[in-house]
Write a structure and sequence with these properties.
Layout: H1 5-18, E1 21-22, E2 30-32, H2 38-46, E3 51-53, E4 56-61, H3 63-75
Antiparallel strand pairs: 1-2, 2-4, 3-4
Length: 86
């Protein structure tokens, strides 16, 4: 099965969301780690769905990224999945 860049981006975004923690600097956003394909992360940043945190390791998942990740999960029938509790 061929994987399109769009599919990889959407699945990566959903996984980033599911493994994220609440961002105390931005209550509508979340924080997540960079342990994914760097090109996919760069593509998501270019779309405004991820943000760097000024050289630190975690990324910021802004409200737009959270909403898109939730939409991806809904299309997969997994809308009940939520990030791990803090």
């Amino acid at each position: 099965m061929d994987r399109s860049p769009k599919q990889l981006q959407e699945l990566t975004l959903a996984l980033l969301y599911l493994t994220s923690l609440q961002d105390h600097d931005d209550p509508a956003g979340r924080r997540c780690w960079k342990g994914y394909d760097f090109q996919v992360l760069e593509d998501l940043k270019a779309q405004g769905l991820l943000q760097d945190t000024q050289g630190r390791i975690p990324l910021r998942l802004p409200q737009e990224g959270v909403a898109r990740a939730q939409a991806v999960l809904a299309t997969l029938g997994m809308e009940d999945l939520v990030p791990r509790p803090e």
